[in-house]
Amino acid sequence: MRSFPSPFSRPLATVFALVMGLAPVQAQFFKKRQETPVPSPPPMNQLTAMPGGNPYAQPANAMLTQATSLPETVVYRQPVYSPPSYSLPYEGYRYDRRSGKPRGGLFSSGKPSEDMLQLLNVIRERAEHISKFGLPYVFGGDHPSEGGLDCSGTMKFLLSDIGFPDMPRTSYDQYAWLRKARTLKHTKSIPDHMGGRKGIKPGDLIFWGGTYDSGHKVSHVMIYLGQGGDGTHYMFGARGKSKTGLHGSGVDIFKLESGYQKSLVGFGSLPGVF
Q1: Is residue 141 part of a domain?
Q2: Rounded (5°) CA angle 72-60-42
Q3: 267: buried, middle or exposed (CB in 10 Å: 19+, 13-18, 0-12)?
Q4: Is residue 176 part of a domain?
Q5: Looking at residue 178, which CATH number applies to its domain?
Q6: Is residue 20 scored above 60 in pLDDT?
Q7: Calpha distance 185→200 (Å, rounded)
Q8: What percent of the chain is predicted at pLDDT more than 70?
Q9: I need a surface site. Which of 43, 57, 155, 223 has the fewest CB within 10 A?
Q10: Secondary structure (DSSP) of 67-129
Q11: pLDDT single digits (tens) 81-105
């Protein structure tokens, strides 16, 4: 008797094809296909150089051989004070600030010290000199070499190297600086006279709010220079782009007129000055 091979000896794919009604040729599709090998990438020195213009798109060896200087991108940096790039009166002058509070009482005349009078003379001379630079108001300006100054930058530039290196940069922080020293007087109007407990003194910083949306109570600052023989008050600083002072500049000496009472926050003397 002729024997037939058992169906269980056939390949599993053929049996599966018979059950499913597929031909043996079609069953070959169910066999696992071999993956085509992926060629290794060429060495870096064989890569084709990318066109110039974007230094980040060039190969690593090209970046090393073609040093491309990228423009500096600064999101924010803490302003660092540098000495004036312009010659100012009283170069090298330093006011020796004092700790504590000025003494008063029966045996005190209440008059400013000789050192304080010298400081005020320095401030006036420097303010007069800077006002003739012809600088415009530039928001964020820290130094005349930048082409302009803003209000608090002008105060920082004027005072930092004559005894006030710890002076903050922004108007609000300068306001807080005086509050911490307890020299600030909150008021809605400028006094008509100088001196005394309620009067404003030369060298006092004056603060306003609401000049722009700063997010703080204070947004503007200038420094009081004194009162003329006709009773006119004068101050120095940087105002808006549409305002000019006695010398026709945005960073200039201005008359402290009644219009400045609007949005006034207060004024106060520099810490340690008496």
Answers
A1: yes
A2: 160
A3: buried
A4: yes
A5: 3.90.1720.10
A6: no
A7: 9
A8: 64
A9: 43
A10: --PPPP--S---------SS--TTTT------SS----STT---PPPHHHHHHHHHHHHHHHH
A11: 455 566 789 988 999 998 876 655 5
